[in-house]
Amino acid sequence: xxxxxxxxxxxxxxxxxxxxxxxxxxxxxxxxxxxxxxxxxxxxxxxxxxxxxxxxxxxxxxxxxxxxxxxxxxxxxxxxxxxxxxxxxxxxxxxxxxxxxxxxxxxxxxxxxxxxxxxxxxxxxxxxxxxxxxxxxxxxxxxxxxxxxxxxxxxxxxxxxxxxxxxxxxxxxxxxxxxxxxxxxxxxxxxxxxxxxxxxxxxxxxxxxxxxxxxxxxxxxxxxxxxxxxxxxxxxxxxxxxxxxxxxxxxxxxxxxxxxxxxxxxxxxxxxxxxxxxxxxxxxxxxxxxxxxxxxxxxxxxxxxxxxxxxxxxxxxxxxxxxxxxxxxxxxxxxxxxxxxxxxxxxxxxxxxxxxxxxxxxxxxxxxxxxxxxxxxxxxxxxxxxxxxxxxxxxxxxxxxxxxxxxxxxxxxxxxxxxxxxxxxxxxxxxxxxxxxxxxxxxxxxxxxxxxxxxxxxxxxxxxxxxxxxxxxxxxxxxxxxxxxxxxxxxxxxxxxxxxxxxxxxxxxxxxxxxxxxxxxxxxxxxxxxxxxxxxxxxxxxxxxxxxxxxxxxxxxxxxxxxxxxxxxxxxxxxxxxxxxxxxxxxxxxxxxxxxxxxxxxxxxxxxxxxxxxxxxxxxxxxxxxxxxxxxxxxxxxxxxxxxxxxxxxxxxxxxxxxxxxxxxxxxxxxxxxxxxxxxxxxxxxxxxxxxxxxxxxxxxxxxxxxxxxxxxxxxxxxxxxxxxxxxxxxxxxxxxxxxxxxxxxxxxxxxxxxxxxxxxxxxxxxxxxxxxxxxxxxxxxxxxxxxxxxxxxxxxxxxxxxxxxxxxxxxxxxxxxxxxxxxxxxxxxxxxxxxxxxxxxxxxxxxxxxxxxxxxxxxxxxxxxxxxxxxxxxxxxxxxxxxxxxxxxxxxxxxxxxxxxxxxxxxxxxxxxxxxxxxxxxxxxxxxxxxxxxxxxxxxxxxxxxxxxxxxxx
Length: 955
What we know:
Elements: E1 8-12, E2 18-22, E3 30-33, E4 39-44, E5 50-57, H1 71-78, H2 91-110, H3 114-132, H4 139-145, E6 150-156, E7 161-168, H5 172-184, H6 191-206, H7 209-221, H8 226-229, H9 236-239, H10 244-254, E8 261-266, H11 270-281, E9 304-310, E10 315-322, H12 328-340, H13 348-354, E11 361-368, E12 373-380, H14 387-402, H15 410-426, H16 429-441, H17 446-458, H18 461-471, E13 477-483, H19 509-516, H20 529-532, E14 534-538, E15 541-547, E16 553-560, H21 570-577, H22 587-596, E17 600-605, E18 610-617, H23 621-633, H24 639-656, H25 660-673, H26 685-690, H27 693-702, E19 709-714, H28 717-724, E20 749-754, E21 760-770, H29 776-787, H30 793-801, E22 807-813, E23 821-830, H31 832-847, H32 853-868, H33 876-885, H34 894-902, H35 906-917, E24 922-928, H36 935-941, E25 943-946, H37 949-953
Parallel strand pairs: 4-8, 9-13, 15-19, 20-24, 20-25
Antiparallel strand pairs: 1-2, 2-3, 3-4, 5-7, 5-8, 6-7, 10-12, 10-13, 11-12, 14-15, 16-18, 16-19, 17-18, 21-23, 21-24, 22-23
Helix pairs in contact: 1-10, 2-3, 5-11, 12-18, 21-27, 29-32, 29-34, 29-35, 30-31, 32-34
């Protein structure tokens, strides 16, 4: 065993706190362990005066009691409800009622008679009503947003529950005070309304095709281990029969400082930060964790086949169980996954199946968990292929690995790509903090994490082949996802929750203290784009440059000022290019050459812009340009490949028309813009089949003869200018005039698509006035106050008070271009029997803007703090100027927004609402099962029309 490059070193700081660093760690991470066992990971990142915070708890659904699955996830939701200090007006009185509710839930859980259960539930609802008069909804979120926090959220998975905030660095102590209070105790207030929201989340998951396959796959892979036997959302019968007592027990056992960590990465002082963390969290007591007997799965010794059905396109998924994350076998499985599918699209599946269009799509990946993991391949066959044929095709590629039939250059290229991705991932505060918490959850030290890349580098081709021979046998699970009716859907009745009081106008003493404790404001910094962006002219092209101060990864962008409005078929031409080669390089060879030099390419077409990008190590960017231009200038038309491409495009179009999310997107566009829009104006099947390859390749060959500008993000502008000139040809073609698409008035139309699903989803879209940048500050605060976020009026009323939906929002979206209208969108996703109540509630809220001064001030101050502590960095410096130019703005417009918000009064928001929102007429889009529609209520919304998939997709 060779000496490891990265080794732990122990130090003591000036305040006598012991900490660990790792030699050669460019991130300079410090790892402290407090006396109570709390691990604290600190690292500095000075991009902005903010700190990315994560509190990862080493527990998740795998620790759920077997008769209370979904508990860890539900507890995560309840962690946002406050404590005996946060979220209450009178804890003594509220506690008595919450104890009664808890006892009633135990009765409810034990009772077997359905009618008696209903009676107990009615009592729960009644006492919950009484208790709610003391509760203050979403006060945790009000406290945290008052700091200027963003990204407030949490997630639960197999072995983790992670709490997230990004905060201004001057609010660190207040954040610690809030979080210490939150992690000190759990109070299960507003319990039954949140439980119903969790059930709505469960319903959304039922309509999620990927989860349907995943649950079946994991159940077969792990027949005894919680990985496969306990889903994060839990079993419906457990969600409907919860135990508050069990949740308290779980919190007391697992939410202890020796079982979670504090990860802070940003603009911080190490010594001051650890003192503050110790001051607040160091007082929480250490506690022994419950002893768990490890569950050892027996080896899989046969092929296990399962079948599920849903309306979407058929596919098959194969999976092999792996060893745990960080083990040699798990790392080898990861390498094999990348030999099959990698970012450079140069893997065996990429080249032999996707590139040659043998089926619609195939991809391999591996997942490492704290205990075990799995290696998986997803394959989507063409319409004339069976799932068995798709399975056999991907198994043939695995056989190639077992024979060593893959090129020698591939392994070092994959490891090089791993290193580049690691470099990119660790350069941001969020990226580094995510890697730190992930290693903590999986029980891997930071030393082990950093040494991992050297372990990957040491693997040989022989290692890979030997692993594949031993690993890939008839020891796998295959789940066939067929097209059909999902007979596993669970449909439940609305339990009839009485809306609870949410007391918007009230504040606890704890929140008042937080708001009164003023910190010195962070001064906003607005960017001078002319200073930050270096420019030059070369061969008639404008060159722009922003220096990369972080690493050796460069980006090059060729930016063409035209898009699909100027040439409808531009996007499909760049798609076809991906399957074509040149006289000297086959399509497969091109993918290999790009991957060998570690350069990725990307073609992005919008309605008014085409951006062709290269990214990778700066030393290889010139090679990437030469390869890109050879490909584009010398692309070789191939009618046989073109015909295959057309078939793939048409099949993908049919697949999209079976996907619920894609259907809802298309329906929303149709409802917003009508039958004639960019979304529906696509090249038809007849045009595709009647055309030939040259029509599209000629377009690609000419691209660099059009006007464009160049943006380079890297270390050396001078070096770049020294070689880019030879790749710029004389401009000789003019841009075609852009097609104008109508932006029709909205109002009075209800468009419906019938789809077999548990929930109903409804979106209302209204056309507003032409965009006015002078409104941007008001829009920012209006959205925060009224329509989006955990403490918005809409969220509180629809989810917190009435438990009508898991997801509901109102969003005012300013147009990104002058002389085009803004749009207001409302959204509700819920059970069919709740939809119309939710719609009525939304209409009431939209009819007259509720005035809650405390909430308005919180939204205004949060917006100011967010702007003050945000910095524009990296390539965003340049791309912001492109966005602003469309609004005829040439300076950092955040300064204008900041100044507007500083002087903003509620009367200004009310006036904005009256003039810009209230008068808007809405069209409505609904997707769901037709038999569940309340037609009487729907007809009140406007003229009902059941539209076809052809109407909304244009094909």
